[in-house]
Design goal:
Blueprint lengths: L14 E3 L9 E3 L2 E4 L2 E4 L26 H8 L3 E3 L9 H4 L5 H11 L29 E2 H22 L5 H5 L9 H16 L9 E3 L34 H15 L4 E2 L8 E2 L18 H37 L3
Antiparallel strand pairs: 1-7, 2-5, 3-4, 4-6, 8-9
Length: about 325
């Protein structure tokens, strides 16, 4: 399928509903604090004062050096950043997901994951004898957050293998998901992970990904708005709910599936990164692309220009040397 520019819906053995493009939306940023092997919200670091119930910002300092007062200040920030194009296909592939430091670095760059256990239990490999959770401990173990990112990364590998006509289960088993033994079960895993990510309230409440489309009907998504406690007073009540990092990565996969995009490899020799859309150009281009960015295109064109120049200079040198040799042979002895 590599020669195609698009994958048509009939080629894909799953159905997404609604099968429409969503508007690009930023990721809701919120601050998490790592305490050893666990991540917790900054709000959980602030203890009520025993006398009047107010918080005591000077009373507690966690192991990473963030005081409760700093935590309160961090919690008051509401930052929003759009995910760069193709993070799911590009940067996530290079993320170090085998340590809490790697998880922390990736989330610090691109956004946080809502603290919860990874819910798609059927595909989780048992990596340890002991469960991730520990009694009487706050937050979520880093390996739970790693499962969210590993499953999102598997989505990208799965789609690339599919567009290249390769087996699909390796996309999942290489990320540690042991219960995938054939292409059919790989598509079931794909559908379950996508459904989990796109069930975020930022998207349509009726979003579904299934392998059997017989009971589905498309509905145009309506962006949900936040109502209820916890929303800052200085923001309007109808401020849209924004996705967390995992939901944002699944949204990128949804857009790729709906548009039938092909995962390509950058033709810039030092790069060779996978990509779907070209970055830093004028607008978004998806057809006839050789390079993942305009800078890669410029670098490769300059490289090829230097090679042509060197080849021309070498040809001229050989020609000059040949002419000189002919002249020497024609001189009388």
């Amino acid at each position: 399928m590599q020669s195609q520019h698009r994958i048509t819906a009939k080629d894909v053995p799953i159905t997404v509903s609604p099968s429409v493009l969503f508007e690009r939306m930023p990721i809701e940023r919120f601050d998490l604090v790592r305490r050893g092997e666990r991540f917790c919200s900054v709000e959980s670091l602030v203890e009520p004062d025993s006398n009047n119930g107010s918080t005591g910002p000077e009373s507690r300092t966690v192991t990473d050096g963030v005081s409760a007062g700093q935590a309160t200040e961090l919690a008051s920030r509401w930052e929003r950043d759009e995910l760069p194009t193709d993070v799911l296909i590009r940067e996530l592939r290079h993320a170090q997901l085998d340590s809490p430091q790697g998880i922390q670095e990736f989330m610090a760059t691109y956004g946080e994951i809502t603290l919860r256990d990874f819910p798609v239990y059927r595909i989780v490999a048992h990596r340890k004898d002991q469960p991730f959770e520990q009694e009487n401990d706050d937050g979520v173990h880093w390996e739970q957050l790693a499962l969210f990112l590993r499953s999102a990364r598997a989505l990208g590998y799965h789609w690339e293998r599919f567009t290249n006509g390769e087996d699909l289960q390796g996309a999942w088993t290489e990320e540690g998901f042991a219960q995938i033994d054939d292409d059919d079960s790989a598509w079931v895993a794909f559908a379950e992970v996508m459904s989990e990510g796109m069930s975020h309230p930022a998207f349509s409440p009726h979003y579904t990904v299934v392998t059997d489309p017989s009971t589905l009907r498309d509905e145009v998504p309506e962006q949900q708005v936040r109502n209820g406690p916890g929303w800052p007073d200085d923001l309007p009540a109808d401020t849209p709910i924004l996705p967390d990092l995992f939901a944002g990565l699944c949204l990128q996969m949804h857009q790729i599936v709906v548009q039938g995009r092909i995962v390509q490899v950058c033709a810039n020799e030092p790069c060779h990164n996978p990509f779907v859309e070209q970055r830093d150009g004028k607008g978004v281009r998806t057809k006839g692309l050789l390079y993942c960015s305009q800078s890669c295109a410029n670098a490769q064109m300059q490289r090829q220009s230097r090679r042509r120049k060197q080849q021309l200079e070498l040809a001229n040198l050989k020609k000059t040397a040949g002419t000189a040799g002919t002249s020497d042979e024609s001189e009388p002895t």
